[in-house]
Amino acid sequence: MDTESNNKKASKDDKMEKQPEADKMVKAIGDFGKWQVMLLLLIVAPTKISSAWQQLGIVFLAPATTFMCTETNLTDSIQISTCYSDCVSYEYYSEFENTIISEFGLICDRAWMANFTQTMCMFGVLIGSIVFGFVADRFGRRPALLIACMLQLVTTVVEAFCYNYWLFTTVRFFIGVSTAGTILSSFILIMEVIGPLRREFMNCLCALPMPVGQMLMPLFAYYLRTWNQFCLGVGIPHVLYLIYFFMLPESPRWLISVGRIEEASKVMTQAARWNNLPSGNMLDVAKSMASEKVNSNEPIRKATYLDLLKTRLLRINIFCSCTIWFVLGISYYGSNQYIGQTSSNVFVTVALAGVLQFPGILLSGFLCKYFGRKITMISFFVVCGGSNAFLVVPEDWFAVRLTMGAIGVGCASGAFATMYMYTSELFPTVARNMAMGASSTVSRVGSMLAPYVAGMTVIAAWLPPVAFAVVPILGAITCFFLPETRGQKLSDHLS
């Protein structure tokens, strides 16, 4: 009996030893309480919902549109959706009263400009990731988020009043910049106040509001049938961002890292009170955390991007990671835009694609926990590619196209959620942020190309579904070269 008791005690001690060293801040403010839930609902949910509206809104701004020449000087016979050099004016036919295609005449030799608008928006997201990443590290998470939110509020309202194409596209670029800032800054802030045991759970919660936004977007488009009404409809809710000036806290970890100890203690005191924890000694806790950084005798190794190529393992990991993120950029954003253009009911299709992202995101957490990251990514990619392949069926097969297109988007969403966690585990601490940044940047390149892949229907109707079927398979093959990271301790240093 004593032996069994000793074995249980030893086993318990071993588990305790395997756990990471207690985080003083987590012990002080709680790992996941009412304060963290408040931040999730106040910051992450609105910014992620808005990001869906801004990044995927092109589906309703530039939907599938047919046109016909109504006034010509020379041509006798007129065919629908055919361009004529002598045509004086065209009429446009779509589900909407007015779109950017009909407003700015984006047909014939100007047809590429509709896709270019979305490309510029995604290029803005790329630039915004770089700019606001720097701002958040240099000046704080709160200023970065406030600037991004105010920029988004202004640009989304101004967008509805743009009177020409190039002004509209320029505003879309800055909308992309602001969208990157809101997503990045809010994600950094929420993850810095969450305990390590809850971070995977929080990763799923942070991903869920985006499909919620996608599900709400068709409601705006259904009742607001002109492009400027739609822009204004999804822009006005950003007025809620004004409350951030009064309720948004700064990250206490960032405050401590820059020596603003008293400010950090005030935020921690507020958090502890929200979570019903003792709050009397927060200044001492903050000073203790600061002293650990100051008194540390360990040499600080500042890694560079070149260190990601230092060893064979890191070279393989960064190459594969960037390839997979590129695939995700094309698959997720391209599929969303394509199914919106080819469906006979764009409202149902977009909403259903949002609904199916819920099981994809939740399934990613389950599969990662029990089967590992690698098999999860491969499974999502294979199903995504297979589903997209069915989009080559005739347009009359509406149910098949609708179901398979939505499943493909759901799998791409689940793969995205998985890859965020997988990438962070593939690289050591000193180079993890750079690896995430490099991978995310490549993903934005993929998302910039996505509209052109979706627009290849003008060449041949079968080209986009074939491309969206082949690209995920490339991602699945790439996953085979990555190691499994489930259950493994995160590495800290470059080997």
TrEMBL record:
<feature type="transmembrane region" description="Helical">
    <location>
        <begin position="375"/>
        <end position="393"/>
    </location>
</feature>
<feature type="transmembrane region" description="Helical">
    <location>
        <begin position="112"/>
        <end position="136"/>
    </location>
</feature>
<feature type="transmembrane region" description="Helical">
    <location>
        <begin position="459"/>
        <end position="482"/>
    </location>
</feature>
<feature type="domain" description="Major facilitator superfamily (MFS) profile">
    <location>
        <begin position="65"/>
        <end position="487"/>
    </location>
</feature>
<feature type="region of interest" description="Disordered">
    <location>
        <begin position="1"/>
        <end position="21"/>
    </location>
</feature>
<dbReference type="InterPro" id="IPR020846">
    <property type="entry name" value="MFS_dom"/>
</dbReference>
<protein>
    <recommendedName>
        <fullName>Major facilitator superfamily (MFS) profile domain-containing protein</fullName>
    </recommendedName>
</protein>
<dbReference type="Pfam" id="PF00083">
    <property type="entry name" value="Sugar_tr"/>
</dbReference>
<keyword id="KW-0472">Membrane</keyword>
<keyword id="KW-1133">Transmembrane helix</keyword>
<feature type="transmembrane region" description="Helical">
    <location>
        <begin position="227"/>
        <end position="247"/>
    </location>
</feature>
<feature type="transmembrane region" description="Helical">
    <location>
        <begin position="316"/>
        <end position="334"/>
    </location>
</feature>
<dbReference type="GO" id="GO:0022857">
    <property type="term" value="F:transmembrane transporter activity"/>
</dbReference>
<feature type="transmembrane region" description="Helical">
    <location>
        <begin position="434"/>
        <end position="453"/>
    </location>
</feature>
<dbReference type="GO" id="GO:0016020">
    <property type="term" value="C:membrane"/>
</dbReference>
<dbReference type="InterPro" id="IPR036259">
    <property type="entry name" value="MFS_trans_sf"/>
</dbReference>
<dbReference type="InterPro" id="IPR005828">
    <property type="entry name" value="MFS_sugar_transport-like"/>
</dbReference>
<feature type="transmembrane region" description="Helical">
    <location>
        <begin position="399"/>
        <end position="422"/>
    </location>
</feature>
<keyword id="KW-0812">Transmembrane</keyword>
<feature type="transmembrane region" description="Helical">
    <location>
        <begin position="173"/>
        <end position="194"/>
    </location>
</feature>
<feature type="transmembrane region" description="Helical">
    <location>
        <begin position="143"/>
        <end position="167"/>
    </location>
</feature>
<feature type="transmembrane region" description="Helical">
    <location>
        <begin position="346"/>
        <end position="368"/>
    </location>
</feature>
